[in-house]
Amino acid sequence: MKKSLCRVLSVLFLCLLAAPAVHADSIVLPDGDPFFDRYGDDCEYLQRTYTANGPDGYVSLYKSPLSTQVRENIANGENLYCSSLYTDADGVQWGGVWRSTWNENDPLRGWVRLSDCVVVPDYLSFAAAHESEFFPYDASYNQMLENAERLVLWTYPGSGTVSQENMDTGWLADGPESYISQCYEDSAGRVWGYINYLYGYRHVWLCLSDPANTGIPADPDVLPPQPELIPPADEIPSPGPSIPLLTVGLIAALAVLTAVFIRFFFGKQKKNAN
User: Fold this and answer.
1) What is the pLDDT of the chain when averaged over all its residues?
2) Which of 21, 120, 198, 262 gives 20 to 30 Å between its CA and that of 192?
């Protein structure tokens, strides 16, 4: 019995040595995202930018919403570009984070709990605050655009952020109503038109009253106050080593067999002593 246990323990030690090593300072990003490949049908289109705002001064990017493996810890204040939304069985929402800005060929950087982030104000934020004030586009607005030599596209009315400052006017020949669905009138009486898609630009607004002006000021009151940002931590912890499941299983089995061996060995010695 003692020889058999020793052989088993020896085999387990050899398996542990053969298990793949993972260094604490290496963060391996796959070429593609296995979780999205498998659960993509359960994900929703998102494409929103969030600011890291974890309670401890940083947020963690996980290998997947179903994994405890942390790929990277990100200091509060960094912008994260989330392409996809996944809601797990507990109702927790996760964002699939891209490495940089929108690039379909980039693999995902990791998955973050959206509760640890603050959304950067965008067209959806504006719609949530003002959708009840929207009204349909009317063909009478076409005359506002007749003499425009260029068009300026904005993220939303009152944002102060330009998406494109020199948009070509050729598309107006098809009729602006083919592109502009909803309108909004701001506090200064300017009429804006919402464009879902135009030559690669998505979810943008055009000021119909002043279509070529890049200097329309931001309106700080156009959206409700944003959540307060938590300062970044002085030190961001490393994600730590990732231990493969095989290694975890071998360690657990080794611990159990070691306990059995010790109990058997010392129990037998005690019995012989008596």
Assistant:
1) 82
2) 120
Per residue in 91-121, pLDDT tens?
Answer: 999 999 987 655 555 678 899 999 999 999 9
Q: Specify the length of the chain in residues.
A: 274
Identify each DSSP E strand in the chain by its residue range.
Answer: 44-52, 58-62, 70-75, 79-87, 93-98, 108-113, 117-119, 135-136, 151-154, 162-167, 180-185, 191-198, 201-207
C-alpha angle 52/58/61, rounded to 5°? 75
One-letter amino acid for residue 9 of the chain: L
- d(Cα 57, Cα 75) in Å, to the nearest integer? 6
**From CA 28, how far away is CA 22, in angstroms rounded?**
10
17: helix, strand or coil = helix
The more confident residue out of 233 and 8 is 233
Provide the CA 179 distance to its chain's centre, in angstroms: 29
What pLDDT digit, counting tens, does each position of 140-169 carry? 999 999 888 899 999 999 999 999 999 999
CA 182, CA 195: separation in Å to the nearest integer? Answer: 8
* Residue 171 to residue 178: CA distance in whole angstroms: 9
Q: For residue 190, what are its two tokens?
A: 């300017």
Query: Domain map of the chain by residue range?
Result: 27-118, 123-207
